[in-house]
Amino acid sequence: MSTMNDTMLATIEADAGLKAALQQSRIDVIGIIRDSGMKGRGGAGFPTGVKWNLAAGVHSDKKYVVCNADEGEPGTFKDRVIMSDWPDLVFEGMTIAAYAIGADEGIVYLRGEYTYLVKQLEECLQKRRDNGLLGHSIQGKEGFNFDIHIHMGSGAYVCGEETALIESLEGQRGEPRNRPPFPVNTGFKGRPTIVNNVETFAWASAILSKGADWFKSFGTDKSTGLKLFSVSGDVARPGVYEFPMGITISELLNQVGGEGAKAVQIGGASGHCVPASQFGRTIAYEDIATGGSIIVFGPERDMLDVVENFLEFFQDESCGQCTPCRIGNTKLLDGVRMLKRGECSMKYLRELVKLGQTMQIAAKCGLGQSSPNAFLSIVENFQNEIMGRIPASA
Ligand SMILES: Cc1cc2nc3c(=O)[nH]c(=O)nc-3n(C[C@H](O)[C@H](O)[C@H](O)COP(=O)(O)O)c2cc1C
Ligand code: SF4
Q1: Closest residue by Cα to residue 37 from 231, 292, 287, 286
Q2: Is residue 322 in contact with ligand 2, taking CB distance under 6 Å?
């Protein structure tokens, strides 16, 4: 596992961003985040400045800042590293967001399996209260009151989806809501709420500290900045890495000791499986987007084992609210098992592809919309492995 000491994030001076933010108006703080071009680091890639601006524009006696630390995507572990190595940067970013949108309460929705981090995080929060970085009139700023508490998740992947997360926070079953309304208007307890990823808050602190131009000096025009990646699978050096957005897959593989890979799954189980012939493509919102999970497959891997494993996960994790996802994942999983047994005809494989495409447009939330991605990309890109399994008579 690589260490994170040689990253840019490690060089950010603690609370310099918050101090800089409090010297400026709320609108200017949002302007800096918007100018940086940062898109949310949780996967969906929504521009952070736009989200904050929408929440800031809503009049309400109460607003919330929620940090999405559910980190349930298979192959993702960078938020755990950020929270254990730099919790201050995350809490600082939440405080900057609270100032920007006019919130007085922050909640960290922490993955159930990360209970061991709670003591360290609580100590960090208390230290911040003692140092006037949380609580009343933060850093002497009259009227700016904000505090943060931690809420434990209970292990459902779908609770990482922001509206299911809010349902769960409210004590209901973690099921996604219909959108609109969006959380920036009607979120936790019906109040304007921004939900951002752990890494997004950490970079927000860095941007306020070092400036929007500094952030934009990394990455591409459409995908600015640096990004943390969780790298696992068939590589010599798995771990968490910081790379500029726009890095090619082959450059990344060289850095992590993954030369010789036959495929890379970008974006976790719900992402896309990219074959070696496309390793020149870039990891960026304009090409292949990701929340940061990179799973590398060596030449010995059977891609049908890979997709079976992912679909078992989605079948378990579907909340069951809508038919395309509840039934679709089960049908895809059955189909992959038929393929493995040599019992799937070409005609049925085409039906499965149509089913996957239907799920992408008809499922209610991102889970069911993205769960067929791996299946569809493996059928498209690994035809030699698939076709060899179709019976000649079928
Ligand atoms: C099934 C599902 C699981 C998700 N899990 C997470 C998660 O663990 N962490 C996260 O930050 N975003 C997750 N998201 C994305 C969130 O809905 C939301 O887009 C994100 O928290 C917004 O933060 P950002 O704009 O800073 O990326 C998930 C989405 C879906 C559909
Ligand atoms: S897509 Fe799946 S997880 Fe999302 S609402 Fe439908 S059943 Fe639930």
Answers
A1: 286
A2: yes
Q: In the numeric block, which tokens belong to residue 304?
A: 């049908």
Confidence band (pLDDT; 50, 70, 90) for 6? confident
Report H helices in the chain.
16-22, 26-36, 48-56, 78-85, 87-101, 118-130, 162-169, 198-210, 212-216, 249-256, 303-317, 323-341, 346-362, 366-370, 373-381, 383-387
Please name which of 290, 289, 284 lies closest in space to residue 221, comparing C-alpha atoms. 284
Among protein residues, the one whose CA lies closest to atom 4 of ligand 2: 365
Asked whether residue 16 carries a pLDDT value surpassing 80, the answer given is: yes
Per-residue pLDDT at 393 exceeds 70: no
- Calculate how far, in angstroms, residue 259's C-alpha sits from the geometric centre of ligand 1: 30
Rounded distance from Cα 142 to ligand 1 centre (Å): 33
Cβ neighbours of residue 2 under 8 Å, at least 6 residues apart? 237, 238, 239, 240, 241, 256
Span 138-148, average pLDDT: 96
The pTM of the whole model exceeds 0.70 = yes
Q: What is the pLDDT of residues 242-282, one digit of tens each?
A: 999 999 999 999 999 999 999 999 999 889 899 999 999 99
Q: How far apart are CA 275 and CA 278, in angstroms?
A: 6
Mutate to test the pocket of ligand 1, among 195, 321, 322, 369 (most ligand atoms within 8 A of CB): 195
Q: Average pLDDT over the chain, rounded to whole?
A: 95
| Domains observed in the chain | 9-216 (3.40.50.11540), 226-297 (3.10.20.600), 303-387 (1.20.1440.230)
Q: How many CB atoms lie within 10 A of CB 181?
A: 12
Predicted confidence (pLDDT) at residue 82 exceeds the cutoff of 80: yes
pLDDT for position 155: 87
Distance, CA of 210 to CA of 212 (rounded, Å): 7
